[in-house]
Amino acid sequence: MDSCDVLIAGGGPAGSSCAWALRSSGLHVTILDKASFPRNKPCGGWITPPVFEALAIDPDDYARGRTLQPITGFLVGCMARHAIEVDYARTVSYGIRRYEFDEFLLRRSQADVRERLPIISIQHSGDSWIVNGNIKTRCLVGAGGHFCPVGRSIGNASGGPPVVAQEVEFEMDEQQAASCSVRQEIPELYFCQDLRGYGWCFRKGDFINVGLGRLDQHGLGEHVTRFVQFLRATGRLLFDLPHRLCGHAYLLSSYSRRELLDDGVLLIGDAAGLAHPQSGEGILPAVESGLLAARVIRSANGNYARCQLQAYPALLAGGLISRRSLVETAAERLPCRLRNAVGRWLLSKEWFCRREVIENWFLHASSSELMELSSEFHDFRRPRDPFIS
């Protein structure tokens, strides 16, 4: 039987970040994934500079041979209403393709990576876990997304109402690229009229990503169809999208009721239900939870009993993903119809789109905790880029 100290189920950003942070711990870390990398992954695909900082990635190095689209602003509004352009005249975020980004993180993790190996069975045996009947580990990390089998093994069948989304990313041909009016440096975000979700249109060079997610799975296809019609009617897209859009689901941290740990088990990323409560972003919480899990695993000194891992939920609760602004807190006290009317009115104001929607929900302007956490796992600290305020 094979054995390892830490077995990570899932090779996405959460699992790769955790393995990377354990690379010098002396622990034998194995990553299992049912896919073969690089693999297609539905995702809008933009990340903030703190993600690169936390993982000691130089953007210039990453950009060699990969898509890295500087983002200098956003277009924000409600569908069928005037949108507000929020411009920063400097790079505040980046667009990436998960096809490239996830493979990059996986290969640099220095873990023992085993691809095309779906998890068929998980059994508890004494102080260890037996996976697929032939891999033994004392610490099992679930990083396999919303439907992670490790999460199911500790009773997380649901865990709360999910966000459901459909999207597509593809390379435009020369004619499509010439007719596309979406600016590469300005992702476009359009909220649904009931504010239960939003659609996006984001161009990265000759690639474009279009999708919509909602905290309401009923009629998702109809909402997606109306959104695409809206993009066509406003001249944002003058060509048909491929017929097949990929669907996926995830939990927002504010709705998730998932257990995060058990004896010898930690859940990270979407497996733990940690997506940002307003933007639905999953990459930053995935990286943050992966690094925090690595901290807890290191400090356990080989004893992975539940009581030794109990610091993990508390560390997550004190981090970026739990923050709520005063605007959000006040809005919760309003009746639904009034809240939606006020929300639509606020989305017509530049100051709200800039300060609340973009800087608080999407750019996480005060993400210093992640920077402090990242310093535990590497000595390399680039001078802070001048465009990051």
Describe the structure.
This protein has 389 residues and is of the alpha/beta class. It folds into two domains: 189 residues, FAD/NAD(P)-binding domain; 150 residues, D-Amino Acid Oxidase, Chain A, domain 2. 31% of the residues lie in helices and 23% in strands. Strands 1, 2, 8, 9, 10, 11, 17 and 18 form an eight-stranded mixed beta sheet that branches. The protein has a seven-stranded mixed beta sheet with strand order 6-5-13-14-15-12-16, with helices on both faces. Helix 1 runs parallel beside helix 8. The radius of gyration is 21 Å and the shape is globular.
Task: Set out the fold topology.
Blueprint (H helix, E strand, L loop, with lengths): L1 E8 L3 H9 L7 E4 L13 E2 L1 H6 L4 H5 L5 E3 L1 E6 L5 E4 L5 E3 L2 H11 L3 E3 L7 E4 L2 E4 L3 E8 L6 H5 L9 E9 L2 H6 L8 E4 L5 E8 L2 E8 L5 H14 L12 E5 L10 E2 L2 E3 L15 H18 L5 H4 L1 H7 L8 H6 L4 H11 L3 H13 L5 H7 L15
Parallel strand pairs: 1-2, 1-11, 2-8, 5-13, 11-18
Antiparallel strand pairs: 3-7, 4-7, 5-6, 9-10, 10-11, 12-15, 12-16, 13-14, 14-15, 17-18
